Amino acid sequence: MASPFRAFRKYQKALIAVAGVVLMFVFVLADPLSQYMKSNSSGSGGGGQHPNDVAVKWDGGKLTNAELDHLVMRRRVVNNFLQQVEAVGREEAG
């Protein structure tokens, strides 16, 4: 009785080569293609985040997407400043 994997064993090298080429194309083209599709869908008003949409709501108030983005930017600025202060302190101490 013949093994069902006989064809695979016979063409194993060719199948692995073809799979490798397909994987290369997928890794190279998948990310740009997904970014392109995402930009097209958000550009036409389909599910994108609008600056005035409410991002967070709680008993005391709410934050819009624009306010949240602004707070994130301020946090990054403060973090960068603190990292620079730490770096200068390490230089002076060492």
Number of domains: 2
Q: In terms of per-residue confidence, which ranges show pLDDT below 50 for 5 or more consecutive residues?
A: none
Largest sheet: 2 strands, antiparallel
Number of strands: 2
Helix/sheet category: mainly alpha
Distance between the termini: 76 Å
Helical residue percent? over 70%
Strand content: 5-15%
Number of helices: 3
Query: Largest beta sheet: what is the strand line-up?
Result: 1-2
What is the CA-based Rg, rounded? 26 Å
- Shape designation: elongated
Element order: H for helix, E for strand: HHEEH
Overall pLDDT level: 85
Main attributes?
single chain, 94 residues, mainly alpha, 3 helices, 2 strands, elongated
What does this entry look like structurally?
The protein has 3 helices and 2 strands, in the order H-H-E-E-H. It has 2 domains: 1-48, no CATH class; 49-94. The chain is mainly alpha-helical and 94 residues long. The radius of gyration is 26 Å and the shape is elongated. The N and C termini lie far apart (76 Å). The chain has helices spanning 6-10, 12-43, 65-93; strands at 54-58, 61-64. Helices cover 70% and strands 10% of the residues. Strand 1 (54-58) and strand 2 form a beta hairpin. The model has no long low-confidence stretch (mean pLDDT 85). Strands 1-2 form a two-stranded antiparallel sheet.
